[in-house]
Amino acid sequence: MNITYNERNRVFKLDTAHTSYCIGIVDEENFVGHIYYGRKLADDDLAYLMRTQEPPFVPSKNNRDRTSFWDAFPTEYTGNDIGDYREGALTVRTEGGHTAVCLSYLSHRIYRGKEKLEGLPATFGNEEECMTLELTLEDKLLGLQVLLSYSIFADNDAVARSVRIINNGEGSIYLTKALSACIDMDNEDYEMITLHGSWARERAVQTRTIMKGKQGVSSTRGESSHQEHPFMAWKKRSTTEESGDIYAMNFVYSGNFLAQIEENQFGSIRAMMGIHPYNFCWKLEPGDSFQAPEVICVYSSEGIGGMSRCFHDLYRGHLIRGEYRDKKRPILINNWEATYFDFDTDKLLSIARQASALGIEMLVMDDGWFGCRNDDNTSLGDWKVNENKLKGGLKHLVDEVNKLGMKFGIWFEPEMISPDSDLYRAHPDWAIAVPGRTGSLARNQYVLDLTRKEVRDHVYEMVASVLRSANIEYVKWDMNRQLSDLGSYGLPADRQGELYHRQVLAVYELQERLTSEFPHLLLENCSGGGARFDAGMLYYSPQIWCSDDTDAIERLSIQSGTAMVYPLSVMGAHVSDCPNHAIGRVTPFKTRGYVALAGTFGYELDVTKIPQEDRDMIPEQIAMYHKYNDLIRRGDYYRIANYADNGLYDCYVVAAKDKSEALVTYVQVLNRPNYHSRRIHIPGLDPDRTYVIENADEWPEIRQTEYKGDTLHYAGINIPPLWGDFQGRLMHLTSK
Ligand code: DGJ
Questions:
Q1: What one-character-per-residue DSSP string does 148-195 give?
Q2: What's the rounded mean pLDDT across residues 537-560?
Q3: Which residue of 11, 108, 505, 651 is surrounded by the most CB atoms within 10 Å?
Q4: Could you identify the atom of ligand 1 that is nearest to the CA of residue 526?
């Protein structure tokens, strides 16, 4: 890792182990251009790539065509309204009502380490682990300074970018758009990969050809959303899972976002990511600054899989915090799909007794334990234990669960308020609302206006006092509706456009407070399933509930799409009952276990009611979790085949970093008559080592039990047809 500045050719070069990122300063006016991002290069004399020696040239040579210069120049971070046809990254409104921003280089700073982003989640690393380039750009007329930060890592190829905007002028400036990253490059036959979905169908992979004009994904829901995801990649058409060029951006943020690629008239693309400008208007008084969140940029020459593994390693090493980051998580049983709202102390204890006898380590009490919450119409905000359900109180229940040798966890939805709650009756103005308009309900609830300190403090105290009252070791922090009807009684008219972002900052502040007061707490974020499964949340919680769809087959696609960016160690995944509650499908209990193993692993069923043969399988599944979880949490993930693509089967492998072992998960979704065995190629192994199929007894059809790594990868092995649909098998390979 190194960052250099060559004063002769005015080029900054950021080198990671396998990539280079180059930025140049050009012309007398010090315009800042993007030169190169890709495979590592030794040379830094690359300014020719900006094409400033060809028409329309630079303004000092051809000022009559300055707008043509802006149309073509690969700008590193773009202003607005100065002639570039393409969309800019930063737009403002001045007191005079003007919108133009023109940025040029002022100064720079190169330093070891990485500074924190005030109030925001961000990757981290010390002086040995990171280096940062901070480029200061300015618009002299506006008195605006724009600080672009680029951090690189010794052990990872990602570049972490963020932007800080300072108003050094004399009047107020309104930021109407402040994106976090922007990259201009030639379109070399790129396709765009994005993730889309809905409730129970999160993060399906979508690939499209990049066309002229704008294309992208976004959210204006106040959270990352079920529908689209704050991630995009662009890859050469020829790039595969295992090889070829791919670029990606992922937003370390949990609110509205824009991820967009625009192809211009000359066949160049501009990729941009940041807070969505929709309803965004941030007032900067003189001297104020605005910190835009971080975007992680990745380039890999090792295909889609190489990109995924780069994100996984970065997030495991430099984003997730807390004592559970590198630890096996307790196997939990959650009562949501077991009981929904219909439970009491006796019911929970009967589940806990049976669960602990089988080896399950934690009981999680989900929604319905507080206020009068017997369905989802009421009581959010009234975080007082319902003693009609929990007879003897919460502490009694927790103590009884602890006596069984189990930990105890609890569910909250702190950001919400039910109109039918004591809290709403006392403080109707605490809900986000437009004065005089009845806001749209979702799940019969409103969103609390956490931008107000008194609301934040109240919510925090309610949650914290429950946690202080008993030995609670896990919290599931849920969020079940998007924001709408934006209005805050706490903000003046000219700051209402700050509400979306301030709300996200408030959630971050609350979770920071919580994890500081309860450092041993295991926090799992959740949002109606996986609507806030994003890198921002990972800074506060080492795991996130992936989806409310717990069907093993649906989960194959959801988890594979999620693993495009996020490591398996963070994916909340449970074995649930059948017919599955989201889809009605019946799958073998064994297969459900195999699929949940590729996540945090747990159960979400009434263990006292499931068939005896399923119950009998739980100790075996638990033993598998203990045997394989270190490998799954820490290893390198390789997709082999996606059920979402082929409609027939799914296969992936997790290989140990030292190549000593690997676990292949194979799920045959559909059996078809009269086909020969299926060839599977297993990447991620050491080509020269010999691997033994350690669980050969489970693969009686494969006679030979030892293969070289290169044979397993390049020649592959034959997986026999399995009898019936939805059948799964694991193959554990250990090197000799
Ligand atoms: C949505 C979550 O995703 C579920 O797991 C469950 O906690 C419910 N909310 C409870 O209301």
A1: EEEEEETTEEEEEEEEEEEE-SSS-EEEEEEEEEEEEEE-SSEEEEEE
A2: 98
A3: 651
A4: 3
Report the DSSP beta bridge partners of residue 417. Answer: 446
pLDDT single digits (tens) 382-425: 999 999 999 999 999 999 999 999 999 999 999 999 999 999 99
Q: What is the mean pLDDT of the chain?
A: 97
User: CA-CA distance, 215 to 236, in Å (whole number)?
Assistant: 17
CB half-sphere exposure, 696, CA atoms < 13 A = 11
Closest ligand 1 atom to residue 411 Cα is: 7
Q: Where in the chain is the domain with CATH 2.60.40.1180?
A: 640-735
Written as one letter, the residue type at 184 is D
List, chain by chain if needed, residues with CB within 6 Å of any ligand 1 atom: 336, 366-367, 376, 411, 478, 480, 526, 528-529, 545, 548
All CATH 2.70.98.60 domain ranges in the chain, comma separated: 2-318
Taking the centre of ligand 1 as the mean of its atom positions, its distance from the CA of residue 623, in whole angstroms, is: 28
What token pair was written down for 252?
Answer: 């370390």
| Ranges of H-type helices in 469-518 | 499-517
Contact yes or no for 533/566 (Cβ under 8 A)? yes
Q: Which of 313, 366, 478, 650 is catalytic?
A: 478
Reduced to 3 states (helix: H, G, I; strand: E, B; else coil), residue 698 is: helix
Residues 174 and 172: their CA atoms lie apart, in Å, by: 7
Report which protein residue has its CA nearest ligand 1's atom 9.
528
- What pLDDT shows up at residue 184? 98
- Which CATH number is 640-735 given? 2.60.40.1180
- Are 684 and 638 spatial neighbours (Cβ–Cβ below 8 Å)? yes
CATH code assigned to 2-318:
2.70.98.60
Q: How far is the CA of 475 from the centre of ligand 1 (A)?
A: 13
What pLDDT shows up at residue 401?
98
Q: Whose CA is nearest to atom 10 of ligand 1?
A: 367
Strand order in 289-300's β-sheet?
104-112, 130-139, 144-153, 156-167, 289-300, 246-252, 231-236, 190-196, 204-209
User: How far apart are the C-alpha atoms of 524 and 472, rounded to whole Å?
Assistant: 13
Best of 379, 479, 526, 605 to mutate for ligand 1, by most ligand atoms within 8 A of CB?
526
Helices (H), 300-448: 303-318, 336-339, 345-358, 393-403, 422-426
Quick one: pLDDT at residue 703? 87
Look at the block and give the residue holding tokens 């693993």. 563
Over the stretch 559-589, which tens digit does the pLDDT of each residue have?
999 999 999 999 999 999 999 999 999 999 9
Concerning whether 548 is annotated as a catalytic residue, the answer is yes
If one looks up domain 332-634 in CATH, what number appears? Answer: 3.20.20.70
Residue with tokens 């160049």: 268
Q: Which residue has the tokens 């369905």?
A: 375
List every span in the chain annotated with CATH 3.20.20.70. Answer: 332-634
693 CB-near residues (< 8 Å, 6+ apart): 699, 702, 705, 706, 731, 732, 733
Pocket test for ligand 1, best of 545, 546, 581, 600 (most atoms within 8 A of CB): 545
Task: Assess whether 478 carries a catalytic annotation.
Answer: yes
